[in-house]
């Protein structure tokens, strides 16, 4: 049987950090004199920090010099780090540890494929770091999702062919990246939003051992 690998997105799949990203972006928007809504924050899921700031400034109709832009990127991240400071394992989304344990028990290689540059400290805080054989995040890529780069590097690090990798993703851009890499895409969240995914579940509580076993045999 050919080896299979599993790749997990971080924000929205393993932990719900979107709410902390939202608070940090909203604080910056408010300081710049405009509102930023939860609905608008949906556009930021899976999107790099730089692109998020570009979109935020478009929303607020704000122009910035390169120097100011870079300073706001730093400000946002300082605030975000303060919001996630006290994160612990209670913030891991339901049944994620069950699925990770099932894969580990079956000796399946596991990677992280995230746009976040804060992925490693978050995994440390929620005590899931030991599950991951490879961590590919915003520090390792030159092209953001929907480009498949992040997942292709993860597959290579795991030593698994792309078409034998399974990707869990909550963002449209992430599903598109997994599909572009010819991987098996599994959407976590609203099926209407993630309609391009091969399989879809609202969360990991819906993913049973039968389904995982079938994937391992595929
Ligand atoms: P950072 P993911 C993404 O993580 C988030 O969904 C997105 O909202 C965020 O802007 C991006 O990481 C960058 O995060 O500012 O921590 O580098 O969903 O790809 O795990
Ligand atoms: Mg995500």
Explain what the structure shows.
With 218 residues, the chain is an alpha/beta fold. It folds into two domains: 5-15 and 93-217, 3-Layer(aba) Sandwich (Rossmann fold); 18-84, Putative phosphatase, domain 2 (DNA polymerase, domain 1, Orthogonal Bundle). It is built from nine helices and six strands; from the N terminus they run E-H-H-H-H-H-E-H-E-H-E-H-E-E-H. Strands 3-2-1-4-5-6 form a six-stranded parallel beta sheet. The longest helix is centred in the middle third of the chain and has 19 residues, at 66-84. The chain is globular. The protein binds 1,6-di-O-phosphono-beta-D-glucopyranose and magnesium ion. The site of 1,6-di-O-phosphono-beta-D-glucopyranose has 20 residues, from helix 3. 1,6-di-O-phosphono-beta-D-glucopyranose (B16) binds at residues 9-12, 21, 44-49, 52, 77, 114-118, 138, 171.
